[in-house]
Amino acid sequence: QTLSLELERVRSQLSSTTTQLSTIQTVNDNLQSEFSSTAEQLSTLQTQNLNLQTELEAERSRAKAAEEDAAFTSKLAKKAVEDAAFALKLVKQAQMAILESGQRLKFDGKWWDSASLLTNCSGMNYGGG
């Protein structure tokens, strides 16, 4: 009978251990399922992160290109202002040259009219004398 009691105790322990093992197996299965799900989520997040990093690098490249374009445009604008100032200076010089030329022509015209008048007057004197 002692053997029977011992056997019953061992069976009870075995049953309890089997139940515990089954519970542990269920918990393990659940944890593996959660791990797989988490691993998939992590993989998805890593892919999204790589995509975002690629987009960020593209944005940085575009920003750098835009910055370079802006700097170049600024240089062009500065050069255009300098060229416009130089052109304005040339226009003013041309206006002054035209004005001076016109004044000389006016003066020369008066001189020519005076010389012509004197020549005509002299011719009259010679012709009349």
List keywords for this structure.
single chain, 129 residues, mainly alpha, 1 helix, rod-shaped
Draw up the topology in text.
Blueprint: H1 2-128
Brief account:
This protein has one helix and no strands.
Order of helices and strands: H
**Average pLDDT across residues?**
87
Query: How many H/I helical runs?
Result: 1
Please report the distance between the alpha carbons of the first and last residues.
Answer: 185 Å
Provide the gyration radius in Å.
Answer: 54 Å
Choose one word for the global shape: rod-shaped
The tally of strands reads 0
- Main beta sheet, described? none
Characterise this structure.
- With 129 residues, the protein is mainly alpha-helical.
- 98% of the residues lie in helices and 0% in strands.
- It has one helix and no strands.
- The protein is rod-shaped, with a radius of gyration of 54 Å.
